[in-house]
Amino acid sequence: EVVTGEHSGLHNPFMPAALTQTGITWIGSDNSREPQPYPIGPATTVPRYPSNVYYNVGTRAEQLDEYNHIYLPPALGGRCVDTPTNTCRTTPATWDEYVDSEASIMFGHLMGNDPRPHYAHQSNLAEDGVLYDVLDAVLDRYRAWFEPPLFQPTMQEAARELERQAAWQQDVAAGRVTAY
Asked: What pTM was estimated for this model as a whole?
């Protein structure tokens, strides 16, 4: 298994040979760009969810500054444009609102039985540890509803589950499965 910085090299023409030489069979990819696994030589990509915990922040103030710049419209000092897949905020987010929003997104993936992992960056663990607040909120929500511990699949296990789910959807679409 390997994850490259910025998921770089996935489309490099030399990547299949490099993966073959190193024996790598699973490689992380960015779900927001490529949500379906695909082969690269002997390897299969494992789409991972990016979060709004940005790579270049270490403090709460930095995180909120960037988040609000992205999600506020230009009239409020940001760059956000409402689209069918993006909703701009009408006021700057507070720390609690930001944490609640990110935890809701991650918890939704978790409750949707989506095996894709989320990813964050080392900088999110330094200084104020901005990632910890988000993860604590996700875990608090989980523990409010469930007692068993969370299962963290490896990239291979996540990819195999995505393959299993895709096969199931193909069987449903082809009418080979009827279930309630």
From this structure: 0.85
